[in-house]
Design goal:
Structural class: alpha+beta
Largest sheet: 4 strands, antiparallel
Shape: globular
Order of helices and strands: HHEEHEEH
Length: 131
């Protein structure tokens, strides 16, 4: 459902060419929240999309305070490549920020050109650190 909403928004904004890349980024961020966020059963994962000049900012909110870490999985590992993929698809324009209330939000900017990256905001990956 969230991917369909993102695709529809991008088409409506005249940025349909970003759909495949943006949907993959959204899927990775959302899967990360589902798989790793340890939250009470009554807490939801929320998505938000913001139109930018030449791109889109994708946000995934969850109620877990734990910040994600980019891993360097071995060739045999079945998991652990999602954030590295997000990093590659966004040119490093992604990160994690606190939010009002409990939890965090992961954000990423998918841009058709370099004009969208400057308005991303929030903590950047470089400030989060890597393992």
């Amino acid at each position: 459902m969230a991917r369909e909403e993102l695709r529809r928004d991008l088409v409506n904004w005249g940025q349909g060419e970003l759909s495949d890349q943006a949907e993959l980024v959204l899927s990775e961020l959302f899967t990360n929240a589902v798989r790793h966020a340890q939250v009470p059963w009554d807490r939801l994962i929320e998505t938000r999309f913001e139109r930018l000049a030449g791109g889109v900012r994708i946000e995934v909110h969850d109620a877990d305070e734990t910040r994600p870490v980019v891993k360097e999985p071995s060739m045999d590992d079945e998991w652990g490549r999602g954030l590295a993929l997000v990093d590659a698809l966004t040119g490093g324009c992604w990160g994690v920020s606190g939010r009002a209330g409990v939890g965090k939000l992961l954000w990423a900017v998918v841009a058709g050109d370099s004009s969208a990256g400057g308005s991303a905001g929030g903590d950047t990956m470089g400030e989060m650190g890597r393992d």
